[in-house]
Design brief:
The protein is of the alpha/beta class. About 50% of the residues lie in helices and about 15% in strands. The strands form 2 sheets. It has a 6-stranded parallel beta sheet with strand order 5-4-1-6-7-8, sandwiched between helices. A two-stranded antiparallel sheet has the order 2-3.
């Protein structure tokens, strides 16, 4: 009898720990988008007479939405709202047309998404990429995945690390914070998870690195997509 009770307790604790929803960041987590983002930024800069940047430098500028990206890319003395209003339309024009040209899913991402869906886990995307591009890219690269929610940046909601985007997803799906795992590649993502009160997983294959993830409160660190399963509870 004691052994039976013990096994039941272990099983119950395991079930209680399982997550019902995994929220993924987009850029640097699901998809390597840096080449297309870099081309769009440099197109907008060059068209308006500003110096361009190597893609490695652009990579350090992404993560907080395109406005922050462009402000960081603009030269000193021109990092202002008026100049941003000048280059932003050119970025969007180019990116809308070319945002799937060089972008690719990271190795193993498609497999883990399928596995999670098969196990009955809900999936969502929370991105600082503007909403139209977020929907297009997710639909292009993951057409067979059933997403419970896809949320991109809008004018009516602050960008991450503000937790509003996570709260909107939870309200839409009807899931509590304790049932959520948030997966991302940057300080912005780890702070978003902390601000929302949800458990975080930092991925090392994205645009930042392990040091940044740990310094910003990542609950877990993974080096490959398959490792995410153990933090979901499988």
């Amino acid at each position: 009898m004691p052994r039976s009770i013990s096994l039941w307790a272990i099983r119950s604790n395991s079930l209680a720990a399982m997550k019902r929803l995994v929220i993924f960041d987009l850029d640097g987590t699901l998809l390597n988008t840096i080449a297309d983002l870099g081309d769009a930024a440099n197109y907008a800069l060059k068209r308006n007479g500003f110096p361009v940047h190597p893609v490695e430098k652009i990579q350090s500028m992404v993560g907080n939405g395109i406005e922050r990206l462009l402000l960081r890319a603009l030269p000193e003395g021109r990092k202002d709202e008026a100049t941003l209003a000048l280059v932003k339309p050119d970025f969007i024009e180019y990116y809308d047309e070319n945002n799937c040209r060089q972008t690719r899913p990271y190795d193993g991402i498609s497999d883990i998404l399928v596995s999670l869906v098969e196990k009955g886990v809900a999936l969502a995307v929370a991105s600082n990429k503007y909403e139209r591009a977020t929907f297009k890219i997710i639909g292009h690269f993951f057409p067979d995945i059933k997403w419970a929610a896809i949320e991109g940046q809008t004018d009516t909601r602050p960008v991450k690390p503000d937790p509003a985007i996570v709260f909107d997803i939870l309200a839409k799906i009807g899931i509590s914070r304790g049932d959520v795992l948030y997966v991302g590649d940057s300080a912005t993502d780890m702070l978003t998870a902390r601000n929302a009160g949800v458990e975080s997983v930092g991925v090392t294959w994205g645009f930042r690195g392990e040091t940044e993830l740990r310094e910003n409160g990542a609950a877990h660190i993974v080096e490959s997509p398959g490792e995410i399963l153990k933090y979901v509870g499988f």
